[in-house]
Amino acid sequence: MELRQLKYLVSIAEEGTFTAAAEKLFISQSALSQQVKRMEEELGVPLFDRSRNRLQFTEAGELLHHRARKIIKEVEEAKTAIDDLEGLCRGTLSIGVVQTVNAYLIPRVVSYFSREYPKVKLGIEELSAPLLEEKLYNHELDIGISFNPSVYPDLDFERIFSEQLLMIVNPRHKLAQCSSIEVKGMGEEHLLLLSNGYCTRRIWDAAAREAEVEPNVQIEMNTIDGLLSAIQNNTKVGTVLPALTMEMKAAEGLMGIPLENPSPEREVGILWRKGAYRNKASEKFADVARQQYRQLNEE
User: Fold this and answer.
1) What is the mean pLDDT of residues 131-144?
2) Where in this chain does the record put each HTH lysR-type domain (predicted)?
3) How far is residue 269's CA from residue 286's CA, in Å, rounded to a whole number?
4) Fewer CB atoms < 10 Å away: N or C end of the chain?
5) Closest Cα to residue 95, out of 84, 109, 85, 83?
């Protein structure tokens, strides 16, 4: 079995059809089908269930697809390691980023990094923290920018910064002029929050439990921009988001108020596979992320 055949299999999975995969690979559909047939003959099992209308892997096909992705990634990592020996910073870097960090920090990081290292192709994927960790663990990402602690024990975390969560409100909200707000006093406040799958929400919920408060959550959303837009047009509700959210354009004119007793905060950093080779490009990207955070914090 050849590496190109494994790449064909991965491409079919990504595109969903033989036709689309063949177009992406710049080969004919018949040539692609022939390569799949050869793999099936070599392995002695079918890789696709052809009895269904929708293209779907068999159990063997799914197993081979999972292994193929890892093999392709390891080959790419080996090539990058050789480039590193020659002092080069090039190749492809796959990065997973949680939404809240992607919204305000990553645009600065990517802008600087692409200017300084134009030979590195970046692939940035916005993901929930659990999915990011899963994809990093399975070699589908090179590094992740997420939160501590991670669920997977085989991932290492390197802190970039910690930040407090703020109550963010319209400037005409009754609490807008407060210098701080005690969490225990927020039981009657109407809140718009990120949904339960987000780390920011889980940190806030933990703070509310500690203060023995049951928040009045009116609406749950899955985008920060959506929350901030809603706050811009509503003087009766607030949201709880990380402090650097206030740097976003969508937060212009809004008021961010520190929370106390407790003061919920989160720790943001770089996630790596434990013991894995760290190529030069990923090390440089991590350095740029730290540098850009420091600059953002000083502005």
Assistant:
1) 90
2) 1-58
3) 9
4) C
5) 109
What pairs with residue 219 in β-bridges? 192
Q: Mind listing the pLDDT tens digit for each residue in 10-43?
A: 899 888 888 888 898 889 989 999 999 999 899 9
Task: Report yes or no on whether pTM surpasses 0.70.
Answer: no
Among candidate residues 246, 247, 240, the one with its CA nearest the CA of residue 266: 240
Distance CA 206, CA 194 (A): 14
Domains, the chain, ranges and CATH? 3-69 (1.10.10.10), 87-160+267-298 (3.40.190.10), 163-265 (3.40.190.290)
pLDDT digits (tens, 9 = 90+) for 7-19: 888 899 888 888 8
Which helix (H) or strand (E) segment holds residue 224: the answer is: helix 224-232
DSSP states of 30-41? HHHHHHHHHHHH
Rounded Cα distance between 66 and 68, Å, is 5
Take residue 94 and report the two structure tokens written for it: 């796959």
Six-digit token pair at 51? 């009895």
* pLDDT at residue 89 in the model: 65
* Sign of the torsion formed by the C-alpha atoms of 159, 95, 103 and 203: negative
Of residues 208, 292, 199, the one with CA closest to residue 241: 199
Q: Is 4 exposed, middle or buried (0-12, 13-18, 19+ CB in 10 A)?
A: exposed
| Mean per-residue pLDDT over the chain, rounded | 88
